[in-house]
Please model this.
Amino acid sequence: MEQWGLITTAQARNAGLSSQQLARLADTGVLERLRHGVYRVVGAPPNPNDDLRAAWLALAPARTAQERLADPDVEAVSHRSAAGVHQLGDLDADRLEFTTSARKQTRDSQVRFHRRQLGAGEWTLVDGLPVTTVLATIGDLAAAHLDGGHLAGVVRDAVTTHHVDLDEVVAVLSPHAHLYGVPLGQGGMLLTRMLEQAGVPESTLAVGRLVVPHLDQESMRQAVAQAVAQVGAMDQESMRKALADARDVDTAVVQVTAEATEQPTPSARKQLGAGKDE
Model:
């Protein structure tokens, strides 16, 4: 059974094992109990996500992992637990969180359910375990009003480690922006604040290209000015002219940087102008 070397009591019974036989296998060390009703076959390699795997199997103990993954309404690891699986931010993993399409209850105080219908593109498999995607996880945590500092760390890692598209991050943050002190729908403004709060360098042009299009004109000028300050001096008149002549923000960043250093910046052009029409 390909489910990480784990087996539930119900699955064992379906395979013909009695409760006494199962207990004997556990007593003799053939099986290792992970949680109520879930065992690991001795010799199966341990994994940091074993608690989540065991809890997920326990949600529908009579069905195999393969059977459940074929169900479009499969339960998925979500919220803080999903952030832990994706290695996003630094969140306490004191609960095992799952999103389900139907109402579920449990006596396990460690397990928490969230009810909503997940779209086909909102969950993915991580080593065989269904987990909400990085983007869906950000949206879930923002909707749950995770504190801004921790959400900033999640967003930072999504951008810098998972290379999530910033336009998509803006889209999932926008409905919840007002929960974090910015106007409703201003996901770009919230994203910018969070990247700054999380310590993403403002002079990093790769991040600047993604963030700047979502800023207002004044914030854009400040961002460009900060980038320029890292590479050289430039008088304000030259900067204003460069910004006025630039057709878009990417061109502005490249042009201002080039004029500040008095030399062409092919690497910057290649990085910032990727995908742009000439």
